[in-house]
Write a structure and sequence with these properties.
The protein has 264 residues and is α/β, with parallel strands linked by helices. The chain has one domain: Phenylalanine Hydroxylase. 45% of the residues lie in helices and 10% in strands. It has twelve helices and eight strands. The strands form three sheets. The protein has a four-stranded mixed beta sheet. A two-stranded antiparallel ribbon has the order 1-2. A hairpin with an 8-residue loop joins strand 5 (169-170) and strand 6 (179-180). The chain is globular. The protein starts with a strand and ends in a 12-residue tail after the last helix. Residues 117, 121, 125-126, 166, 183-184 line the site of fe (ii) ion. Fe (ii) ion binds next to helix 5 and helix 8.
Length: 264
């Protein structure tokens, strides 16, 4: 299946996905750059996840190997998918404790940034957090919740995903700075130090009503981050009835964007 210029790779009958020498070299260079940037910036759960996964650094990891570790740790799994899947398929996989992962890797021309998630983002960004039990329970409940809600609310639930799973920060007790757990940040060389240290973005305490009211752009560094205090906080949110909160967000209206419109 094709999405833009990238073609997703299909596993063979044993689940093995073939990568070229150049693709493996791109992985190695991405890992080496992130490893030099991330110390002091990421949360304990992410660091622990990286330790547990023991990702190869000289070649693209095999999703089936990662799946084995995740199953052992949290009974989660990763599922290779085409670059674009329907929201229904995405939510169903999460509800079944499977994380959908695109299999292609970016080219050198898009080494620093690409809009669609590639396997570096999926593995380096998402998989370490999938070794954390409460975080994976949140992911499952999020998927179940999305499947149970009227479609008219889904865009707000996508904001929850964006400001947590993709761009979430956590305030760990005793730490002087917030730490990263969001996959979109931790897989970006530029946004990792920016999210933690820059004076430009605002960092707000996580509040679900506020999240539902906050717009975002996918193609720029974020202008707003939400900080949780623990992963229990996320799990508790998806166990409550969110429809009244979403209705309240609609009633109060959306916050004005804190970023310029696309193309401006
Ligand atoms: Fe992602």
């Amino acid at each position: 299946m094709k999405s833009g210029k990238y073609v997703s790779k299909v596993p063979d009958s044993t689940g093995y996905i073939e990568y070229t020498k150049e693709e493996n070299a791109i992985w190695a260079d991405l890992v080496s750059r992130q490893k030099s940037i991330l110390p002091g910036l990421v949360c304990d759960a992410y660091r622990h996840g990286l330790d547990v996964l023991k990702l190869p650094e000289d070649r693209v990891p095999q999703l089936k190997d990662i799946g084995q570790v995740l199953k052992r740790e949290t009974n989660f799994d990763v599922e290779p998918v085409p670059a674009l899947i329907s929201p229904h398929k995405f939510f169903s996989l999460l509800a079944n404790r499977k994380f959908p992962a695109a299999t292609f890797i970016r080219t050198r021309e898009e080494f620093d940034y690409l809009q669609e998630p590639d396997i570096f983002h999926e593995i380096w960004g998402h998989c370490p957090m999938l070794t954390h039990q409460t975080y994976t329970d949140f992911m499952q409940k999020y998927g179940e919740l999305a499947l149970s809600l009227d479609e008219k609310y889904i865009w707000m639930l996508q904001r929850l995903f964006w400001f947590t799973v993709e761009f979430g920060l956590i305030k760990e007790s005793g730490a002087k700075t917030p730490k990263i757990y969001g996959a979109g940040i931790v897989s970006s060389a530029g946004e990792s130090p920016y999210a933690v240290h820059s004076d430009v973005p605002s960092r707000k305490h996580f509040d679900i009503l506020d999240v539902f009211r906050t717009p975002y752009r996918i193609d720029i560094f974020q202008t707003v981050y939400f900080m949780i205090e623990s992963f229990d906080e996320l799990y508790d949110v998806v166990r409550t009835d969110l429809v009244p909160v979403m209705e309240k967000a609609l009633e109060k209206g959306m916050h004005p964007p804190t970023f310029p419109p696309k193309g401006a």
